[in-house]
C-alpha cells in the first residue's frame, strides 16, 4: 500500500474514533441529564409528600380524630347522665306505675285552704270529668310534666296494670334550675307515705312506709 493511502487511512480511522467518542459523550450527557431530572423530580415529590404529611398531622391527622371521638364520647356520657337524672326509669328497673307500662292515675284529692268554699266544691264536682282525667295522667309521665296540687297536701291514687312485688319506690321532681326563668311558683315534695290496696280485696289497705 502506498504511503499516502496509509496516511489517508490513518486520518479516516482517527475521524471515526473522534466521531464515536463525540456520540458517546453526547449519549452519556443526555442520560446524565435525564437521570438528574428524574432525581430532582423524585426529591420534589418526596418533599411534597413530607409537607402533606406534616400538614395532615397538624390539621387533621389520626390524633385529632381520636381527640374528636373522645370529646363526642364525653358529650354522649353527659347526655346519658342527664337522662338518668330526669328519667331514670327508662334506663333502670321497670316502673310499673308509669303510664307507658299501663299505670293509671285514678284520682287526685288536694287539701286546700279553700276546701269549704263554693269554688272548691264546684272543682271537686267536676274533678272526674274527661279533661281533668287526662291532665292527671302527667303525674306518671316524663319528669317535667307536672301536675299542680292546690294546698299544702293531698292524696293520689295510682292503679297498676297488674300485681307486682315492690322492691323500690322513686319520686321524680324537676330541678328548679330547669324551670323557665319567669316561673315564680316552685315547690317540691317533702314528705310522703305509700299505701297499698290489693285487688280483689279493696278493703285491705296497708301502709308500706313513710318518707
TrEMBL record:
| SUN domain: residues covered | 143-196
Please provide, in alphabetical order, the Gene Ontology terms of the cellular component aspect for this entry. membrane; nuclear envelope
Q: Where are the transmembrane segments?
A: 9-28
The listed locations are: Membrane
Q: What is its main location?
A: membrane
Q: Which UniProt keywords apply?
A: Membrane, Transmembrane, Transmembrane helix
In terms of Gene3D superfamilies, this protein maps to: Galactose-binding domain-like (2.60.120.260)
Q: Name the InterPro entries for this protein.
A: SUN1-5, SUN_dom
Q: Which GO terms describe its molecular function?
A: protein-membrane adaptor activity
Task: Please give the Pfam families that the UniProt record associates with this protein.
Answer: Sad1_UNC
PANTHER family in the cross-refs? KLAROID PROTEIN-RELATED, SAD1/UNC-84-LIKE PROTEIN-RELATED
Q: What is this protein called?
A: SUN domain-containing protein
